[in-house]
Amino acid sequence: MKITVYSKPNCGGCDFTKNWLDENNLEYTAIDVTEDEQALADVKLHGFMSVPVVTVDGWDNAWADFRPDRLEELL
C-alpha cells in the first residue's frame, strides 16, 4: 500500500492527517504542494481544491481533508 499526502505548511488538516498516520505507524510520502508545482497541478487535475489530499495506491482511491473514517480503513 502506497500512501501519499499532498499538503502545505500551516495547514491544520494536513498536520492532523500526518500525525494520525504517524501514530498508527503507517508509512507515507508527504509532498508539499507549495514546493512541487507538478504535485499541485496533479491535485488540481484530479479536481481537488484544498489540501490535504490523500491518495492510496494512486488517484483512484483519493480524498481531501482530514478524514479519520477513511484513515481507519487503512488499518
Question: What would you note in describing this structure?
Answer:
The protein is of the alpha+beta class. The protein has helices spanning 12-23, 37-45, 68-72; strands at 3-7, 29-32, 53-56, 62-64. A 4-stranded mixed sheet has the order 2-1-3-4, with helices on both faces. Helix 1 links the parallel strand 1 and strand 2. The N and C termini lie close together (11 Å). The model has no long low-confidence stretch (mean pLDDT 97).
Q: List how many beta strands DSSP finds.
A: 4
Shape: globular
**Radius of gyration of CA atoms, rounded to a whole number:** 11 Å
Largest sheet: 4 strands, mixed
The percentage helix is 25-40%
- SSE order, one letter for each helix or strand: EHEHEEH
Write a short abstract of this structure:
This protein has 75 residues and is α+β, with helices and mostly antiparallel strands. It is 35% helix and 21% strand. The model has no long low-confidence stretch (mean pLDDT 97).
Topology readout:
Elements: E1 3-7, H1 12-23, E2 29-32, H2 37-45, E3 53-56, E4 62-64, H3 68-72
Parallel strand pairs: 1-2
Antiparallel strand pairs: 1-3, 3-4
Brief descriptors of the model:
single chain, 75 residues, alpha+beta, four-stranded mixed sheet, 3 helices
